[in-house]
Amino acid sequence: MALFSKEPCAFCGKEVGMMSRSKMSSKDYVCDDCRKKGNPFARVDHLTKDQVAEMFARAERDEKLLDGVELSDEYLDAGMGKVIHFRSQKDGGDIFTVSTPETQRYEHRPVFYFSSIRKWNPGEAFVERSVGAAPREAVRDYSVLITLKEKLSADKKNDGWELRIPYFDAAVPEILIKIPKEAEADKVQRFYRNICGMCEYRVSRGIRAARDKEELQVKNACKTANEALKAALKGGDVKEVLAEGLQKSIDIDQGKIKKKGFFARLFGR
After folding, report:
1. What is the tens place of the pLDDT at every residue in 192-219?
2. Residue 120 within a domain
3. Could you tell me the superkingdom of the organism this chain comes from (predicted)?
4. Structure confidence by residue, pLDDT tens digits, 31-77
5. Whether residues 96 and 54 fall in one domain
6. Which residue among 76, 121, 154, 264 is least packed, with the fewest CB closer than 10 Å?
7. Cα 250 vs. chain centroid, distance in angstroms?
8. Which helix (H) or strand (E) holds 122?
């Protein structure tokens, strides 16, 4: 019978039953053991064998990004000794990772970016790959974009919650966090609100940083042009002036030079 038939895993070759495998869009199968090498939130049924193989490699590479990164921890006591963690990069960084009792069985911690929290759109992704960026409106209300829904059993009693974070990635179109019914409702709501708040803070900070960087680049370009003109009129070294301007532009782009706040400018710091 098909229900009890076994199929070989496309990666390790082991034959596994229906309850221990997942079918990929290329009609191949991946066993649960190999599946643990990838992102626990990925939808392998949307991916081909080659795409799943790339996901495995990326999961290993991405986890190395967490080396040496300080993470703050927003956690939820889910009851019965279970804990769900939402860890984000300190100092307003873009990286975050999610840990649940289910994901802890996987080999690598998943790595996500606050700047990619938006609905997956293949057309927009194509434009980004082609020209490097796609026009889009900044997300302003994460409590609308990120959803928390209570699940109800057949007798209309609480059966847990589903917290869904849309994500701009073909492999992970959403981060689905399943919260068991043993968790306390008020703690679940607070966990959800805190995640939304962190997203709003990170993205608004990122937009502000991008604007500051653009302003610094414009000022640097104008100053470099003026200094080069002065050097040319006085017989100075124009190439040296341009080289200094270029290096400053690179430093601005890499975040080594940042816009000073009001008091820093006032007191010359």
Report:
1. 999 999 988 886 665 556 666 677 788 8
2. yes
3. Bacteria
4. 999 999 999 999 999 999 999 999 999 999 999 999 989 999 999 99
5. no
6. 154
7. 25
8. helix 122-131
